[in-house]
Design goal:
It contains 13 helices and 12 strands. The protein is of the alpha/beta class and 392 residues long. Strands 1-7-6-5-4-2-3 form a 7-stranded mixed beta sheet, with helices on both faces. A 5-stranded mixed beta sheet has the order 8-9-12-11-10, covered by helices on one side. Helix 3 runs parallel beside helix 9, helix 4 crosses helix 5 and helix 4 packs across helix 8. The chain starts with 5 loop residues before the first helix and ends with a helix. The mean pLDDT is 95.
Length: 392
């Protein structure tokens, strides 16, 4: 569909009721084996295995429905599904690198992205260099003739640095590097990677796309056919694919993504403002707040903010932090995010950075504002601060 709002695309993309007896949602195909009526049909399916139903791992109608919806939503050529966000990152990075290549990765990248680069790409002969997420056009000084990939994540994991994606992408093109971005935080609704020079957009669909904390799913959306073909071939070689039920849950989640994000955004900003006024908090790291260092870039390039941000507490003993967190009733202590539930997690960026340093004292907490009423979330946090102060 062309010339329709994103909310409309979310409702209609990736489904065709007329092709499924009028059923609103695409059916879930549990499939490994596909049978062919003739030898000609079998051989034809082998020649066109990415375009037809050939084998369950390569794709089923459920697979194609989710991929088509994700690609249409983000404005890409086509998409490739995988079993998790990390598998999507690993597949995309591997698709465009080989021994002897040089890769630049933002120093603020998701921790598992960093580990994959260090523990898999480097041992296989790829030179990995981490760079300051705020480098902007200055990345030109780091580019080499053999720089094959520039990997971005904006906002950055834990500390939420906003990158100057257009400037970085423009510089990367001078050496022919493929520009990738982890766009999970913003989703296709709040940041449009292909309009800013990106070639490959990656999502942990586990998070906002699924939206219910009940599925593992990754998606790689590609700008053009050549890029998509490279990624698809790599995913097929790895056997990377999601299960049919998780793909269905991804499709289900997409239908309500817009309305959910509006509430996540509103609640997160309310919580961020409340936390910023607390004496126990030294600063809040939320790109949509005017006091955030990268706010101007966020305002220029993004159309909204999601429910994930961080707050830096003044230094306190671990026992006091535990007293604060252990008694929470609405905020869960847990990894991942993007579901309907609110989460909180101690974050430790200081121990992983190499191109930049995190030297701010205190305890960094990453929060995800779920779909609970913000007044109740504030009450939960207020009680948490009471416990913290009582433990000092």
């Amino acid at each position: 569909m062309k010339d329709v709002a994103k909310d409309t695309t979310l409702v209609h993309a990736g489904r065709d009721p007329r092709a499924n007896h009028g059923i609103v949602n695409p059916p879930v195909y549990h499939c490994s084996t596909v049978l062919f009526p003739t030898l000609d049909a079998l051989e034809d399916s082998d020649r066109r295995s990415f375009e037809v139903i050939n084998y369950g791992r390569v794709g089923t109608p459920t697979t194609f429905a989710f991929e088509q919806a994700a690609a249409e939503l983000e404005g890409g050529f086509r998409a490739v599904n995988t079993g998790s966000g990390l598998s999507a990152i690993a597949t995309a990075l591997t698709a465009f690198t080989k021994a002897g290549d040089h890769v630049l990765i933002t120093d603020s990248a998701y921790g598992p992205t960093r580990r994959f680069a260090k523990e898999t790409l480097i041992p296989y002969g790829v030179e990995v260099e981490f760079f300051d997420p705020c480098v902007g056009a200055g990345i030109s000084a780091l580019l080499r003739p053999n720089t094959r990939v520039v990997f971005l994540e904006s906002p950055g994991s834990l500390t939420f640095e906003i990158q100057d994606v257009p400037a970085i992408a423009k510089a990367a093109k001078t050496v022919g590097a493929v520009v990738m971005i982890d766009n999970t935080w913003a989703t296709p609704l709040f940041f449009r990677p292909f309009e800013h020079g990106v070639d490959v957009s990656i999502h942990a669909a586990t998070k906002y796309m699924v939206g219910h904390a009940d599925a593992m799913l990754g998606i790689i959306v590609c700008r053009d056919e050549a890029t998509w073909t490279t990624v698809k071939k790599t995913a097929t070689r790895f056997g990377a694919c999601a299960g049919p039920d998780d793909l269905f849950l991804g499709l289900r989640g997409l239908r309500t993504l817009s309305v959910r994000l509006k509430q996540h955004q509103e609640s997160a900003l309310i919580l961020a403002d409340w936390l910023a006024a607390r004496p126990e908090v030294s600063r809040v790291l939320h790109p949509a707040r005017a006091d955030f260092p990268g706010h101007a870039l966020w305002k220029r390039d993004f159309t909204g903010s999601s429910g994930l941000f961080s707050a830096l507490l003044n230094p306190v003993p671990r026992a006091a932090l535990a007293a604060m967190l252990d008694g929470l009733e609405l905020f869960g202590l847990g990894y991942s995010w993007g579901g309907f539930e609110s989460l909180i997690l101690p974050a430790r960026p200081a121990g992983v950075r190499t191109a930049t340093r995190w030297t701010e004292p205190g305890n960094l907490l990453r929060l995800h504002a779920g779909l609970e009423h913000p007044d109740d979330l504030i009450r939960d946090l207020d009680n948490a601060f009471r416990r913290l102060n009582a433990a000092l």
